Amino acid sequence: MALNWGILGASKFARDHMAPALLTAENTALMALATGSADKAAPFVAMAPGLKVHATYEALLADPNIDAVYIPLPNHMHVEWAHKAIAAGKHVLCEKPMTLRAEEFDGLIAARDTSGLLVAEAYMIAHHPQWADVRVLLSDGAIGQLLHVTGAFTYNNADKPGNIRNQAAAGGGGLRDIGVYTMGSVRLATGQEPQHISARMRQEDGYDTFTEVRAEFAGFTYSAYVSTRMSLHQEMVFHGSTGMIRLTAPFNPGVFREGQVILQRAGHDEQIRRYNDINQYKLQAEAFARSAKSGAPYACPLEFSRGTQVMMDAVFTCATSLK
Hints:
Blueprint: E1 3-8, H1 12-24, E2 28-34, H2 38-47, E3 52-54, H3 57-61, E4 68-71, H4 78-87, E5 91-94, H5 104-115, E6 119-121, H6 129-139, E7 146-156, H7 174-190, E8 196-204, E9 207-217, E10 220-227, E11 229-240, E12 243-247, E13 259-265, E14 271-275, H8 280-294, H9 302-318, E15 320-321
Parallel strand pairs: 1-2, 1-4, 2-3, 4-5, 5-6, 7-10, 8-15
Antiparallel strand pairs: 7-11, 8-9, 9-10, 11-12, 12-13, 13-14
């Protein structure tokens, strides 16, 4: 039996990525959308004829035909509507960052455990096979001892002042939008937590547009930067004592460019693993449906997401200002 989904809000991201994924994933069905805008609803209805459009979020949550909700609302609204969805008896998949402070996860974890529902952050890279392969390469010692990790994720939205990512009151800024990837992915790949963090940050109107983070983990160091004022780029590199692993499209494979995991080792030919025609949003939806229906472990539980938010909170606390 399919998991019946509703979407709270007609965001561009939901329209371009999650709605198509929910329409094509196995054991899922996109049944409803909540928006008061007929214009915003139109492309969703075109994708899914028969889609029920509710005028309010509350009306969708009251819909007895909906099993799960996807929340792509502005960052500062995530916690409130996740709690309301849980109270309405719905499973919840919420866009990242799910909270603006780590302690807000505690109430969500408690509500999840009390309700027995699946509640999770939409951290889609946890479901992409390239990251499973990186974890295996690292654990198998393919590059010897891991010594340093570097990362970058950038885009330029300076020409979109009205975008919520350029609004401090909505929880905007580059660190919350894409820092979850450069920081969360190193935790995902290694299973380790940072022991010391330092950072430098440039801000405009109360939100960050460039952040450089340095950290020490057990046995290796880390450095990465994110920006919403630099040309489009993303990359993660794991550098070891006998080789290195490079991901050419670690966060948006197939959108940014072809996903590749490149293994380089002294005395060996370069090995390139390619990941074509893989939709990580579809894989995420299918994994969520399986876990919601069976109670099986989910690849990105709230406890993992809380750990990334702890790291992010530490960056905001310790960052020095750049002009």
